[in-house]
């Protein structure tokens, strides 16, 4: 959830580290720090945003070409300069930055206490730094031995970048359950916890596996396993475009990413929908396997979970296979009983979400097939799942997901349609009709962006001061209400709830009073009248009703304001209704003067429990 950048090469390290950290600020941003080595290692840290650190470094002449940097999202210890990384061992022998959590750090504090180590911060990272120092001095067998002994001794998740005082030309890294890549360029080697940090410098990367370490020199990198033996790795190419990680004239990443949706949705559709139908061969999922699945479990967190809720309606309806959708943090601890003929689908943009990864491992432990819908190539979930369906959203920088969500929806549709076809639940004509309609979705999203952006911006300015909002709908409209509500509350800090429209009257309707904003989504023909009745119920209690409906549905009698979207097949409406809801979340937040790309307390990829 924090960000790590490292460099060992021929350029000035401080420039590369600060630039990389700026690109990672979305991962965590309550403090930042760098350690640069020229002759000695110098550490600089600052509380708050990265600009504070930049100011501190303004007049410094830092010529060093090797260094590590970090932006922090506090776990152990409040956000402060003392708790910020890099941390330094007692006598300055080891300097380290860390992402993740060391679970047995209390026990390790006792151990360090017995050996007269003194700690200056409240962080588990400082403990880790001193444990490495302890093993380094005790066994005197060099960095890899000290790192490996530490990896065996600590519990938790970590990606670390380390400099040893006695090894001035080396930068060391290691990881377990926390992402980290190593980039190779002509000028040297780069380390990053996330691709956008180094994409400007190189798209050639090595992936380090769990419990592996690496030593980066200026002209080579050596990988090691837990025994200290060298491991050979293949250099991989990242296909993301550098410009995708830049704002390119947009005020915020969130609005840029909202506007990228027609393009990335189209790319994702085209990667699976070919002239004669859907081709899932890239996922490795075979027709025989699909035929055998008797039960589907979808497990994910946050917005990815909302995709799961949408997918449940579509998959069940089309394939008639029972589908259960679950929040990963619940699934992993409730000892789920899984059908051996089932398929567990994990949905994750980052591919690193700790709970989703744990859910995947639980499914694999039970011998159940897993399929991951993931955006980041080479991420932990992508590497560990039996099958992977990649979404082609490109790098998503804004904390609140938009374009990744839309591509995940496409992945879910493609899977549902193909499974239904293979299981002979839909005939050729329906199959082809669905695919034809799916191909129109990018243009329909574009149409919404073109015709509705200004309208929604105006509407949003009216709601900048509200305290509560409710999103209601039935079926797929309820699923997208969940996402619309999250999109508003996570960036604007306005309390908002999503409710199944028919459930509102069982308690929550008592919260509706004069002027309460209720967004009613009504696209599903079979249950349209029921949803409209629910809107009438809130309207008559004083709610200000905004209806989100297809052009052929008239809610003018009940809605105070109507947002009209193009018509489509009933299954695909979430791809269209989500767009105005994203715009509403974005513009309400902007009119409240908040930093929409970096909402308080949130980080992009949640690699801790
Ligand atoms: C909300 C949001 C989060 C993520 C969730 C899962 O806008 O982005 O709710 O959807 O943290 O993240 P991934 O998809 O990376 O597993």
Task: Give an overview in words.
The chain is α/β, with parallel strands linked by helices and 609 residues long. It is 37% helix and 23% strand. The chain contains 17 helices and 27 strands. Strands 3-2-4-1-10-9-11-15 form an eight-stranded antiparallel sheet, covered by helices on one side. A seven-stranded antiparallel sheet has the order 5-6-7-8-12-13-14, with helices on one face. Strands 19-18-20-21-22 form a five-stranded parallel sheet, with helices on both faces. Strand 16 (273-274) and strand 17 (277-278) form a beta hairpin. Helix 7 (261-272) runs parallel beside helix 13, helix 14 runs parallel beside helix 17 (573-591) and helix 15 runs parallel beside helix 17 (573-591). The longest helix is centred in the C-terminal third of the chain and has 35 residues, at 428-462. The N and C termini lie close together (11 Å). The mean pLDDT is 94. Fructose -6-phosphate (F6R) is lined by residues 301-304, 348-350, 353, 356, 400-401, 486, 490, 605-606.
Essential attributes:
alpha/beta, seven-stranded antiparallel beta sheet, binds fructose -6-phosphate
Q: Got a strand count? A: 27
Named once each, the bound ligands are: fructose -6-phosphate
Alpha plus pi helix count = 17
Any low-confidence stretches, pLDDT <50, length ≥5?
none
Shape type: globular
Overall radius of gyration? 25 Å
**Protein structure class:** alpha/beta
| Helicity range | 25-40%
Please report which band the strand proportion falls in: under 5%, 5-15%, 15-25%, 25-35%, 35-45% or over 45%: 15-25%
- Give the termini distance in whole angstroms: 11 Å
How is the largest sheet built, in terms of strand order? 3-2-4-1-10-9-11-15
Largest sheet geometry: 8 strands, antiparallel
Can you give the mean pLDDT?
Answer: 94
């Amino acid at each position: 959830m924090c960000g790590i950048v490292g460099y060992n090469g021929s350029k000035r390290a401080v420039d590369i580290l600060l630039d990389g950290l700026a690109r990672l600020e979305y991962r965590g941003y309550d403090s930042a720090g760098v350690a640069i080595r020229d002759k000695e290692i110098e550490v600089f840290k600052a509380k708050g945003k990265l600009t504070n650190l930049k100011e501190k470094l303004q007049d410094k002449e830092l010529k060093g070409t090797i260094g590590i940097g970090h932006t922090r999202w506090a776990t152990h210890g409040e956000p402060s300069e003392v708790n910020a990384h890099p941390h330094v061992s007692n006598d300055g022998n080891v300097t380290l930055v860390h992402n993740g959590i060391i679970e047995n750090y209390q026990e390790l504090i006792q151990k360090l206490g017995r050996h007269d180590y003194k700690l200056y911060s409240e962080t588990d990272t400082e403990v880790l730094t001193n444990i490495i120092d302890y093993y380094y001095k005790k066994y005197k067998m060099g960095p890899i031995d000290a790192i490996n002994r530490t990896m065996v001794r600590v519990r938790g998740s970590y990606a670390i970048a380390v400099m040893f005082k006695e090894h001035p030309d080396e930068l060391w890294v290691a990881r377990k359950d926390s992402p980290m890549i190593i980039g190779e360029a002509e000028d040297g080697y780069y380390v990053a916890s996330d691709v956008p940090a180094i994409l400007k410098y190189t798209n050639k990367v090595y992936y380090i596996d769990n419990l592996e370490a690496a030593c980066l020199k200026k002209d080579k990198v050596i990988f090691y396993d837990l025994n200290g033996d060298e491991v050979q790795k293949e250099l991989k190419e990242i296909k993301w475009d550098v410009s995708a990680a830049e704002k390119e004239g947009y005020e915020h990443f969130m609005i840029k990413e909202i506007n990228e949706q027609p393009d990335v949705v189209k790319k994702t559709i085209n990667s699976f929908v070919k002239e004669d139908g859907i081709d899932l061969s890239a996922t490795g999922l075979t027709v025989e396997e699909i035929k055998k699945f008797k039960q589907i479990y979808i497990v994910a967190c946050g917005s990815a979970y909302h995709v799961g809720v949408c997918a449940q309606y579509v998959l069940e309806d089309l394939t008639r296979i029972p589908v259960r959708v679950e929040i990963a943090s619940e699934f992993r601890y409730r000892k789920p009983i899984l059908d051996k003929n089932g398929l567990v689908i994990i949905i994750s943009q980052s591919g690193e979400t700790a709970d989703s990864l744990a859910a995947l491992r639980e499914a694999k432990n039970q011998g159940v097939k897993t399929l991951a819908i993931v955006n980041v190539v080479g991420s932990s979930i992508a590497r560990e799942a039996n099958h992977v369906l990649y979404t082609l959203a490109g790098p998503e920088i804004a904390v609140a997901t938009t374009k990744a969500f839309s591509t995940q929806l496409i992945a879910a549709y493609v899977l549902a349609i193909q499974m239904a076809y293979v299981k002979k639940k839909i005939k050729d004509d329906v199959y082809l009709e669905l695919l034809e309609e799916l191909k129109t979705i990018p243009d329909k999203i574009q149409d919404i962006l073109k015709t509705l952006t200004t309208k929604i911006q105006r509407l949003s300015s009216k709601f900048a001061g509200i305290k509560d909002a409710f999103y209601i709908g039935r079926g797929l409209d309820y699923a997208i209400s969940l996402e619309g509500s999250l999109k508003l509350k996570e960036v604007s800090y306005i309390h908002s709830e999503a409710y199944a429209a028919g459930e509102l009257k069982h308690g929550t309707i008592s919260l509706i009073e004069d002027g309460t904003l209720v967004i009613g989504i009504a696209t599903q023909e079979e249950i349209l009248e029921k949803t409209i009745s629910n809107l009438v119920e809130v309207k008559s209690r004083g709610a200000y009703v905004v209806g989100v409906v297809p052009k052929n549905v008239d809610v003018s009698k009940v809605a105070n304001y109507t947002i009209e979207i193009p018509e489509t097949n009933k299954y695909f409406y979430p791809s269209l209704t989500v767009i105005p809801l994203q715009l509403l979340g974005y513009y309400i937040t902007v009119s409240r003067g908040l930093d929409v790309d970096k909402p308080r307390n949130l980080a992009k990829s949640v690699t801790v429990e």
